[in-house]
Structure formats: C-alpha cells, structure tokens
Predict the structure.
Amino acid sequence: MNLNYAIIGTGWIAKAFADGMKIASGISPYAVYSRTEEKGGNFADSVGAEKVFTSLEKMAECDEIEAVYIASPNAFHYAQSKLFLEHGKHVICEKPITVEPEEFEELFALAKSKSLVYMEAIMMMHFPNRYVIENALKRIGKITTARVDFSQLSSKYPALKRGELPNIFNPEMATGALMDLGVYNVYFALYYFGIPDKITSAAFMLETGVDGAGTAVLHYPDKQVTLTYSKLGQSRTATEIYGDEGTLVIESISKLVNIKLIHNDGTEEHLAGDTEKEDVMSYEAKDFLEYISDYEAHKEEICSCGKNALEVSRIMKEIRAQNGIKYTSKK
C-alpha cells in the first residue's frame, strides 16, 4: 500500500521525520500545514509534498489525506490530534503526545472507537537497539543504581538570554526541559525498570515560568534511578547503569546509540555504534505504517504503545506537580 500523510509543522524535526518516512517507504507526504503559504510551500518543496494548507479544518476535511504527523508546539497537540481523529485520520504526534494524561486517555479511546492508530512519535521505543540494552542488562549482575541523562544546550538559549521568548521556553506552549527532553528519560526508566514506588524531584525554574533543567529520582524496592535533563548546558558524559558485574554505558537515550558494556576488569564490549537520526526515526515510521496497514493484527502493539505513553504522562504530571510547574495555557 501507499499511504498519503500530512505534516503539521515546518521545523527541523518535521523534516527529519519526513526523511525517515522516505526510508520506511510505502507512505508519502501529500500535504503540509503552515500559517503562511510561503513557508508552507518552501517546506513542501523540501519534502516532496503536493499541497499546502493554511487551514487545519480544510486539511482535516481532505479525503486524500489518510494520516497526519503533528510536530507543532506542545500546547496544540491535544486539539489538533482530536480534530484529525474526529475526521477519521490516523495520527502520529511528537512528544509529549498531550500535556495531560487525561487528554491522552480521551483521545486514545476516541481513536480505538474508530480503529485508528494514535501514537506518540518516540523513536527510541521502536528502534531495535532497545533489545540490545535489554539483553545487556541481564549481563551486568545486580543493578542498584542508574543515572539516566539527557542534557542538551538549546539552540534557542542565546535568544532567551537576549530577552526574547522562544516557544521552547514559553509556558503558553507547555514546554521546558521536562517536556522536551525529560520525556525520554522517563520513557527509558519506565521501559527498563517499570513504575517506581516513589518519585522525588527538583526543577531549575527560569523567569519565564518553565523549567530549564531538572532532576528526578525514581525509587524502587531494589534500586534508585536518577534522571537528569537540561536545556541550559551540554552533557559530555553518557547514561550509565551500574551492576555488580559491570556497567552499561549509553551515549544517547533518545537514539539508543553508541552502547558499550564495561566489565569489572576494565575490558569493554562495543554493542552498538552510531546511527543517523533519520534512520532511527524510520523505525517509528515503519511501525506506524504497519499498524495502519493491518490494525487488527497489531492491536496489541498499538495498545502497548498507548499504555506506555499514558504511564509516562502520569509520571511527568507528578514531577510537574512536585515542582509547581504550570502552563499559562492550562490555567
């Protein structure tokens, strides 16, 4: 089959996803939404899309569009996803899929009632390297400690320091370090270690009203997992999981690449190298297409993706509540 999909958003992540879709094959960019015809046209040319819409309602009514990829600011994810699901379109939405877990529950139920795929674009959860890590964890003995880091200096931080207000630091857009980067930390921890018994957290708040960095400790009966994430500085170390028989080192938790196991005697095993982001994203694109192609056959996987997304959203809501993180668009 060849599926026509639409893209909402014209940023670098939307371009990377479109490139990943091309690698996946069987799904073609048909349309692009932008607030301006000119910007939309330039982006459509770059990804090979045929049409440009400046109205989301008209795009949702277009019969040629079967699915939509949403890469707009976080605050718009719920309303835009709902619009397209109500019009019978499959939806893959950038993380965080919704701001509130209750919003996700509502939309997932709506999608299920229409046999539509509604999933979060979280590339690590579809990349086969997650099994490399899973198998390696069985080889490092008893795990009592893990440090899961995603700290990446934002390209928009200089603008913030100049007194501007980029979307990524604007509470009206429901953004900040936790929502942009910490979501990967939470996904990683929950996938490999499960739901914690308790969470303690702290946030470094910016004057704009969002968190620029944060830490969360997930407490389990037999281990502690510390999450660190920041948009105000660049990490030069990797995520590390410590066992009494070895240490697992993962350079990137968003891509799950450059993975090695260091034994207690200091010898190293290189388990996985680097992979281009577009290639990593192609796996979530392939799964999205497969789920759509045979919904009934993949219903269990679709429900599993939904369960993971809901659990992550609930943990993130708890971290926000502990630190008084509120979004002006949600007051």
